[in-house]
Amino acid sequence: MLRFRLPRTRNHLLRAAGLIVGVVAAGTLGYGLFGLDPVDAFYQTIITISTVGFRELVVGEPDAAWKLFTSVLILVGTGSMLYGATAVIESIVEGRITGQYRRYRMQRSIDELSGHLVVCGLGRVGSSITDFVQSIGQEVVAVDIDPDRLEDTGFLHVVGDSRQEHVLRQAGIDRASTLITALGTTVDNLYVTLSARGLNARLFIVSRCDDQEALTKMLQVGADRVVNPYEIGGSRMASLATQPNVADFLDVVVHDGAFEAWLREIIIPDGCAFEGKTIDDLALRRETGAVVLSVRDATGRFHTDDVARRPFESGDVIVAIGSDASLDRLADQVNC
Question: Which one of 33, 51, 64, 74 counts the least CB within 10 Å of its CB?
Fold first, then answer.
């Protein structure tokens, strides 16, 4: 694959600086040999290579050697100064071009995405979200107003205020499948949720909030799920204290990736062969190797006790556990 490469002007700057320092040192030494003291020799070198035209500090009348040395110093010094100026200008231009090209290339990549996940806010919570989403192979676009948080992250991002609609559009919100708002304040998350819902009615939105009252408002303005990190953290600590093995098992299966089993949800589409049939009718465990733990119907109710006897319906969401291969086989059967 072809890669866009620009000149490395850092090396040009270092060479230019070294050349100018060398010329100044040589000029100072040379004029010192003609009888000038170090300060006068340095001063004479500076006014010579800068061609400002000040009076020469020559001891007596300048002879042929003085004139020849000064002429060479002017030519070399002027060339060095021009080279240095060119390197500085080149570094400025390259910096702008590189930054613009990088942003252009990243925006083109974002514009080609569809069904991706957008994360607004790349603080500690947002960073943890993007790391996990990337680890499971989901395309993610991060949005943050602080460019330092996005630098060298290795994933697609947009620098800007996610409360502004044009920034959300840059992140491809109209083509995204999921939005997670993880900004620092509940008000900001509420504002982003409201804006995003207006831009994409099909978007699945997970919002962060800090209190119960805000949770209700988030749901009212369009959030599908609302998470209070403090409440989740408290529940997690309580689970570890009361049922540590169960909590550890769920962490390993859902988050760690070190276990041979995974949890996955699979939606039954319209016209699926599963409709009207039960798990026993389909012999899913024997055919796929995956275990169906529960089924959530269109009303949001989970079926666990009667999961084996209840016929599948269009829009049901199967929650299953198994290896990647077994879950893939189950998904293939659902979508065939």
Answer: 64
Q: Pairing relation of β-strands 291-296 and 317-322?
A: antiparallel
C-alpha dihedral over 264, 265, 271, 272, to 10 degrees?
Answer: 30
Beta-carbon count within 10 A of 163 CB: 20
Q: How confident is the model at residue 54 (pLDDT cuts 50, 70, 90)?
A: low
Compute the radius of gyration of the chain from its Cα atoms: 34
Q: Which domains does the chain have, with CATH numbers?
A: 9-109 (1.10.287.70), 117-227 (3.40.50.720), 260-334 (3.30.70.1450)
Report whether 181 contacts 222 (CB < 8 A): no
Q: Which residues of 65-102 are buried (b: 16+ CB within 10 A; e: fewer)?
A: ebeebbeebeebbeebbeebeebeebbeebeeeeeeee
pLDDT digits (tens, 9 = 90+) for 171-216: 999 999 999 999 988 999 999 999 999 999 999 999 998 887 888 8
Answer yes or no: are the C-beta atoms of 117 and 180 closer than 8 Å: yes
